[in-house]
Amino acid sequence: MRVVWCAAAVAAGCGRIGFDLERVPQRDGADAPVASLVCESHRAITGKLLATGQLAVAATPGGFYAAWTGTTELPATVVRLDAQLAETARQTLGALGPDLNGVLDLGTDVLAAYGNNALEIVDMYKLSSDLSLANYFATFVGLPGRGPFLANRSETERAYLWSHSNTVIVSHMDELGLAGGGSTFDMTDAVGETSGDNGVDDSAVVWVETPAGGASHCTAGNVRFDTPGVPSLQSSRRISSDCRRSPFSASPRTVSAFVFA
Q: 237 in a domain, yes or no?
């Protein structure tokens, strides 16, 4: 398996939106199909990865952090990429997974949310910003959101998105990365999955509810940080009456990164 980091500058008007299904060797250095709005791409030499592994990426000033799950033979790893998407640091973590729900840049530290979603357990690992140090940090109980780390525009207020049974929880997250308190929201049916992303002034979340014996449905809402320490779900609306997954992106950025494995 290989990983290709592709940078797309949407605002620069470097290409139309869409994917070219034909393989374009001159654009990515091999034969993998690339989105037609991609301006350039860089190939990272990662070594072998799990075919069933999961990836997560977080933007940071001057670049990105990227992480993936692994085993003892094919270890989980966190890497730092610069603005040109070249690898500048790496930390090998060993056998972690099977799930990786997100990566968060705390400034001086980096959090990686590894765990087992089937058991509703997340083992949070904390790494130094240069990735020279890595340690187990804390265990969070509950089903984590996909992209669980939420924040306001200035990142002075943060939250951690998760669920349990028929409840969606948006916990306050402090500057160290510890989560607690916050707000809970009871739904009518069992919540099987949540996902989150940050917008301009607030955060967006989507959750999947599955009625007993019925088709699942998706609902979207926005999380605001008006009261310090108490992130809250302000409004919501159903967006689909028949869905099973809730992956999405709500962040209006001028530069995006895609990870292909």
A: yes
